[in-house]
Amino acid sequence: MRRWARRLVWLAVLTAVTAVTARWWSTRSVPAPTSSPAWPPFDPPAPGPRPVIVPQVSDEPLAPAQEMVETGGSAWVAPVEGDCPLDHPVKANDNSGIYHVPGGRFYDRTKAERCYVDAESAAADGYRAAKA
C-alpha cells in the first residue's frame, strides 16, 4: 500500500512540474518581426530572339592535345576523355595492369589511362594482355 502511495505522490509532482512548464512556455514573450521580408520583383525575360554566340577563329596552329611520354624505350600518350587517338589504339589500365587491343571483348568498356601504338609497347611497359 505504501508503494502505491509513493507512486501517486511522484505522479502528482510530475504532473505539477509539467503543468508549470507548459504554462511558462505558452506565456513567454517572443519578439515579433519588425517587418515582413521584401522579395525582389520578378522580371520575366524580354521576348525576342536569343543572342547568338559566334566562336572566334584564329590563324594560330592548335597546340597538340597530347604529349608523348618516353618510359623505358616505349612511348605512350595520355588519353583524351578516356579515348585513345587513332595512332595509339591500345588501351592500358593502371589499376589492373592490363592492356586491351581494338576488337577485344572489353575494349569499348575500358577507360584508358595510357594509350600505346601496339601491344608490344604496352607489354614492354609491364602490362599484360587481356584474356579473350
Topology of helices and strands:
Blueprint: H1 2-27, E1 68-71, E2 74-77, E3 90-93, E4 98-100, E5 114-116, H2 119-124, E6 128-129
Structure description:
There is one protein chain. With 132 residues, this protein is of the alpha+beta class. It has a domain at 68-129. The protein contains two helices and six strands; from the N terminus they run αβββββαβ. The chain has helices at 2-27, 119-124; strands at residues 68-71, 74-77, 90-93, 98-100, 114-116, 128-129. Strands 1-2-5-3-4-6 form a six-stranded mixed beta sheet. Strand 3 and strand 4 (98-100) form a beta hairpin. It is elongated. Residues 62-67 have low confidence and may be disordered.
SSE order, one letter for each helix or strand: HEEEEEHE
Beta-strand content estimate? 15-25%
Radius of gyration, taken over Cα atoms and rounded to an integer in Å: 37 Å
Largest sheet: 6 strands, mixed
Q: Tags for this entry?
A:
six-stranded mixed beta sheet
Provide a quick synopsis of the model.
The protein is an alpha+beta fold and 132 residues long. It is built from 2 helices and 6 strands, in the order αβββββαβ. It has a domain of 62 residues.
